[in-house]
Amino acid sequence: MRSRNNNRQNELTQRDEVSEKLLGGTLPFKTSSAMHPYQVIDLFNVCFEHILKSPNLQEHIQQVKGDLYRRDYLAAFDNDDKRFAYASRWTPSRALAYSSLFSSLEPVNKLLGDEHAKINVLCVGGGAGSELVGLGSVFSRLKEFHPNSDSCMNVEIVDIADWGKVTTNVASYMKSNWVHRNECLNSKFLCADILATNLELIGIADMDLVTLMFTTNELFSEKRKDTVKFLLALNQNCKPGSLLLIAESAGSFLNIKIGERQFPVQFLIDTILVGKPGDSGDNTGAWDIISQSESIWYRIMEREVTYELNLENMRFFYRLYRKKKRT
């Protein structure tokens, strides 16, 4: 019992240290609440072994880079060669960063570590697998403290490109190697335009966490009005207490013209979700911002991980919202 209490105290101490680092604008390379980064990278070394050895990999990567530079998102991911090239090149770095972020945000950490919870997560635009691996990393690590508990996590991924083979690949690895009972970690991929999808049919009212990681810019650039309707639908349909996490590359937000003035997309998002301050000083919207950073870094410690392709540092913006309770 004393050993367990000491372990718990060490965990709480590290969480406090993590909070200080978050306030300082830097995520830790590794945390006690997530799989070690080398374990995350091992997943990609195994799952993408044949891709990493392909003589055509660099050609496919360059094709994807060209399409993304032109903001032609549909063309960038229009076949399996491009999708696996992207996933092998950029997903590992993002998965490491998301693993650190999810474990460092106390409300998300607490949700994923609840030993009795049936956790439902919706990842919008998460087809490349970064969110799935990041979530799986935290859930699986915290599950080690109570491997036989009845907690489970169900991750629903919706993306307009057909990433089904990628998500199935990484999910199978996590189920086989990261958890004691593979039925406690589940994922489902839906190839669909989230802006044209009936949110009730994908169980939005049951979601404990919704993520839009590096997705909002793309949605607004493609269909501004439909994206606003989507955010309003989250206001209407997400359950009280649920979490919403939005992240984008720091400083990359589009500007939206309203009348004669231009506003950053994030200003519009906050206005839709949080609303404007009321007479009492409280926000009038459906959500509260409970954690945020305009610019936070995740830096790779290259000596601790080995991967065939370059692993990149990330600097990004995030907002974590909690749905208000009905009054």
Automatic annotation (TrEMBL):
Q: Can you supply one Gene Ontology CC term for this chain's record?
A: cytoplasm
Instruction: State any GO BP term from the record.
Output: rRNA base methylation
- Name the record gives this protein: Histidine-specific methyltransferase SAM-dependent domain-containing protein
MF-aspect GO terms: rRNA (uridine-N3-)-methyltransferase activity
Which species does this protein come from?
Lodderomyces elongisporus (strain ATCC 11503 / CBS 2605 / JCM 1781 / NBRC 1676 / NRRL YB-4239) (Yeast)
Pfam families according to UniProt: Methyltransf_34
